[in-house]
Design goal:
single chain; 511 residues; mainly alpha; 21 helices
């Protein structure tokens, strides 16, 4: 039996899993999605999606990693040799995400420094796109490097790869033990300050006001499942990898519930903080809250700096805390994303962890330089959209169909989880995985393919963001398809036998 790295404590594992799940999307995606889909009423489909898809898949992936003791490729191979490519596909998707995710953290690092002097001035949009990102080329063109992005990007990779070099217990676990409590404390300070601002009540009323007629719309339910799916770090190899480091006796089901509800609690906290400051901005501008609602990059790097400008005092400190929270949330997620391919390389090629971090992380770092160019934002936007919709979501559908309908593993996984967990899984879990999740994800994927192939976006040419066909083909579809092709190629290569060097390395790491 090989010696595998292990978490030092249960709390260490849970903090790492929550750290992976809590990312940038919790802060800048959830508040806008909830508001646009019924406000307070959105929590009904959201909670339903959490209990019928999010936590069931989380339990499934925790159990797979724990039972088969391997990275995603090794876990799928041990279930059935022909399914190994699914594990590598998930690893390839993680690899792509890590290359541009690091760049967004680099932006947040820059902005945390800009906060002290409010360098963005009064035209926050012009500052982001013209002065900071120097976005002066067309989609598909790179232009030169942008030093203001390149330098913090290098720093991000130095920090993340430095942590991963240290291993699971001494690196990832210790980093999460520091970063996650720090993130929660910083965000609590932000929220407490935000709810005391003038106009905050109006923002919270807009956020929580229930629009019950909305929950009769199918798109609202799809949005709820999408939010749960993308925010829990499921279906791209992370949770399988992390749970493979759990000791033999582990409360898998309990860990999944804590992780799932921990992630949702942070999302709710983010919603309260974001809508409090949006209410403040609306009151300062003399407009309704719905006129200032935004999400994504625009919320974080355009709207928030504008809000910080209007703060009654300590603008610089509040700005620093907000962008520092983005950096911490991003780093804990990037660590977990990068660990998927580090673990895959160690398992498959029996190389030392150091070599895997150097090769895998180093390659990702070099590719990420593309997003530090003048045209980097266009590449980032296209890659992010296509790899999430046709990588992560597609993988989720393939994964549950494979486990529930092809390999018929649900019963085996249920028995394994019930043997070691305090909460016993019943028909709720198997029914969710076998019927509800495949149907909802299948419906989502049908809608996504239809929207993209038939060009149904509300843009001039019908493409996502109005990008040219050539750019959509190579910057979007090719990236998503490339991840699947890489997965198939990697699965066709032979597994190396253990070397003495690797055994010694793993034994040291496990101590």
């Amino acid at each position: 039996m090989e010696t595998r790295s292990q978490w030092g404590t249960r709390a260490g594992f849970i903090l790492a899993a929550v750290g992976s799940a809590v990312g940038l999307g919790n802060i800048w995606r959830f508040p806008a999605v909830a508001y646009e889909n019924g406000g307070g009423a959105f929590f009904i489909p959201y909670l339903f999606a959490l209990l019928t898809a999010g936590i069931p898949i989380l339990i499934m992936e925790f159990t797979m990693g724990h039972k088969y003791k391997g990275s995603a490729p090794l876990t799928f191979k041990r279930m059935n040799k022909k399914s190994e490519f699914v594990g590598w596909w998930a690893v390839a998707v993680s690899f792509v995400i890590s290359t541009y995710y690091a760049v967004i953290i680099a932006w947040a690092m820059s902005y945390s420094v800009f906060s002290f002097n409010l360098n963005w001035g009064s035209d926050t949009e012009g500052f982001l796109f013209n002065e900071y990102l120097n976005l002066s080329v067309d989609p598909g063109q790179t232009g030169g490097f942008v030093p203001g992005v390149l330098i913090p990007l290098i720093l991000v990779w130095v920090v993340v790869l430095g942590i991963l070099f240290k291993g699971v217990k001494k690196g990832i676990e210790i980093a999460n033990r520091i970063f996650i409590p720090a993130l929660v404390i910083i965000f609590l300070i932000i929220v407490i300050r935000a709810i005391t601002l003038p106009g905050a009540i109006d923002g919270l009323q807009a956020f929580f006001a229930p629009e019950f007629s909305k929950i009769l719309e199918p798109d609202v339910w799809v949005a709820a499942y999408g939010q749960i799916f993308f925010s829990l770090s499921i279906a791209f190899a992370i949770m399988i990898t992390y749970s493979s480091y759990l000791p033999k006796k582990s409360d898998i089901t309990g860990n999944a519930f804590i992780t799932g509800f921990g992630n949702s609690s942070f999302e709710l906290l983010a919603g309260i903080g974001v809508f409090s400051v949006l209410g403040f901005m609306a009151s300062q501008s003399g407009v309704a809250v719905d006129e200032v609602v935004a999400g994504g990059v625009g919320l974080a790097f355009v709207v928030f700096p504008a809000i910080i400008n209007e703060f009654p005092g300590l603008n610089g400190l509040f700005g620093f805390l907000f962008f520092a929270s983005l950096v911490l949330a991003g780093l804990t997620s990037l660590m977990s994303i990068t660990e998927t391919y580090v673990a895959g390389l160690v398992d498959k090629f029996k190389i030392s962890r150091t070599k895997a971090v150097l090769f895998g992380g180093g390659t990702a770092a070099v590719i990420s330089l593309l997003f530090a160019t003048q045209g980097g934002l266009f590449f980032l936007d296209a890659a992010d959209y296509f790899i999430n919709q046709f990588g992560v979501a597609m993988l989720g559908l393939v994964e549950v169909v494979l486990i529930a309908w092809v390999l018929r593993e649900v019963k085996n996984l249920q028995l394994h989880a019930n043997e070691i967990s305090d909460i016993r899984l019943g028909s709720w879990w198997s029914f969710s995985l076998t019927f509800i999740t495949p149907i909802v994800l299948g419906y989502m994927m049908f809608g996504l393919f239809k929207q993209n192939i038939l060009k149904e976006f509300a843009t001039d040419n019908g493409n996502y963001e109005g990008y040219p066909d050539m750019f959509i083909t190579f910057g979007g579809w090719a990236v998503a398809a490339g991840a699947l092709i890489v997965g198939i190629i990697m699965a066709s290569t032979k597994w190396k036998s253990s070397s003495q060097v690797n055994k010694e390395s793993e034994t040291r790491e496990a101590k």
